[in-house]
Amino acid sequence: MKKTAPAPLSAWRPLNLDAFLIGVPHYPEHVDESLWARDAQRMAEAGFNVVRMGEFAWHLWEPHEGHFAFDLFDRAIDGLAKQGIRTILCTPTATPPRWLSQAHPEILRVDAAGRTASHGSRQHGDTTSDVLRAHSRRITRAMATHYAGNPNVIGWQTDNELNTTTSLSFSPSCEVAFRKWCHLRYGTIEALNAAWGGHFWATHYDHFDQVVLPYPDNPGHVSPGHRQDYHRFLAAATAAFQRDQVEILRAANPDWFLFHNLGQLEDIDFRGTFSTDLDFLGFDIYPMLYDEMRRHGGHAHSQALHLDICRGFTGNFIVPEQASGLGSQPLFSTMTPEPGEMRRMALSSVARGADGLMFFRWRPAHFGAEIYWMGLIDHDDQPRRRYAEACHFARDMAALKDALPGSSVRIDVGIAGGDFDNQEAYRTYPMGLPSPLEDATLLHRALYRRNIATGFVHPEDDLSRLKALYVPHWLIWDPRWTDALRRFTEAGGQLIVSAMTATRTRDNHILTELAPGMGLGELLGVRVEEFGRIVAPGQDGLFAPPARPAGFGPGGAPLPACSAGRPHHLRLGETTLQAGHLYEKLILAPDVTPLAHWADRWLEGAPALTARPLGRGRAHYLGTYLTEALAEALIEAVLLPAGIAPLLPDLPEGVEASERQHPGGDRLLFLLNTTDMPREVTLPQPRRDLLSGARLGPVFALEPYGAVVLSSTPPGSG
């Protein structure tokens, strides 16, 4: 396994490894050692080349402070190596041992209610704690030193899903660290007061020792700038906690690759040092868990959305944990992948940027908080259909071993994403409106259903690779991004900017000019004269929508007229659509053309969607938020006329398409049946399936949860 220096962050950054990683997270400490040899043999027979282990075993690596024990994992690593399987180790800092939390209770998190975390779960350690950081450096250094010369250890994962259980802490050590961070950031208390608006509600501070953590609703709301800086601080503390480990591991063996496995993506700035300190990122993918928690619109789209979001942070990635079966903790359980669906989900990950994948997990646990989180081997030590599908996937990756390296995922329509400040700015003052990601999800889902190549990109990426870019009400804006968007549009791109974009400073202050600011208004030829809420059916204008059908109260009783909503509609061509959540009254420059108008109430006839020609492209502004119907209408009115088309026309419903491209022009088209019924696919010309070697077309059947990967070269040519 060879690595090169990682390229700069980009949605199109390929992985810097020369081989696909395939295997499982493995917990030899959970099973009798008599089973280890058979486990290794079965892994090798499956076609695996790697396991990941050790992330929750600090108590075994260091049973007493300063006393280290490596024998158990040494034997496990050696036994796997005899079958040709290498090991990725993890720093075990997600689970500080009991002796540590007992001797140093100051390392424990404290929640907003003042409760100190107890021992008996995970992520109870406070990553802002200097004491925890010192202990984490010691265990990392001991492990790195011991394994520095072991050729069977090829890489490391830092910690495990940082900030997934919680990212917040209100401990005394956190408060001290926050004050230090604020002092370093602002230099003077006057600068902090100006940033946080200290003259509002007399929240002024006289010196940094008075600064408090932003307790929620205690009794009211803190300044948006205060809350934003708290989350910036948490992100900085998380990055510093990881950097301690990275520096030790790099010094011990520079040939190791280093990554982290992200879970819930809380309080981590992916455009900062957290990512650039690593070789690449890993993202743990549980499509059914995400869909059932958040109702994205189906397991297949839920997975595609999460993968595209993650790829937008740093480019290609690995999946250190991919769902293999039922997932469960005491208070929930997911649906179970049907026969063939586990392999399909794994291939979807590859189609959308994974250059390594490990099925979670090898064996299910017989004890603990995840006893019904299934793996590839069942509780009775028998391999069944999940193991067979993992073997099938390993054969798939063997067939693609020469075609995948160096490729990245095609994006025709980019959605602005991956910006930590904008994610947090929304949270400081949500007002009951959708987040930028919630708004973007509507467009992503509409594009996904049409198999138009989409993904999330940052304005600092190479936008020349896009045909269109949608900006979903990014409140905070950087003037440099305006210049990038201008170049993109003048070169022929289709730019669409949503309502409320570029309305705040980095300190979460409202701009002193009409929005959009930071030069974006001049680019778009639009200014916002007035804005206000649109009360959706079933809402009362102040609070989040109730969990009942729109327009009806408990038991189906009609809501009072004042809370049933006053919807606004807009007219786009011959179509009238209900707008979403917010209206803006726009002032247009002379060269700006309205494409849609408000269709009722006092705004009737005013522009709602505009277009300004700019070079070879057009810059659009949408004076409202998306709805599902409006997302579809934007595709019809703006994207399709610009020549943006599906990756393959006329695909049947439920067949997902994604394309990976090489810089030289070679392409791999993944077609994945996400349904439990066969689907008939028509190709413009015959193609060879790289997975099976079969010649396909012009019409062929995709079996339930079946997949093909088509090369750009037709059979018999070139």
UniProtKB/TrEMBL annotation:
Zn(2+) binds at C174. Residues 654-711 form the Beta-galactosidase C-terminal domain. It catalyses: Hydrolysis of terminal non-reducing beta-D-galactose residues in beta-D-galactosides. One of its GO terms (molecular function) is metal ion binding. Substrate binds at R122, N160. The active site is at E161 (proton donor), E321 (nucleophile). It comes from the Bacteria. Residues 27-399 form the Glycoside hydrolase family 42 N-terminal domain. Belongs to the glycosyl hydrolase 42 family. This is Beta-galactosidase. It comes from Pseudooceanicola albus. Keywords: Glycosidase, Hydrolase, Metal-binding, Zinc. Its EC number is 3.2.1.23. One of its GO terms (cellular component) is beta-galactosidase complex. Residues 440-534 form the Beta-galactosidase trimerisation domain. One of its GO terms (biological process) is galactose metabolic process.
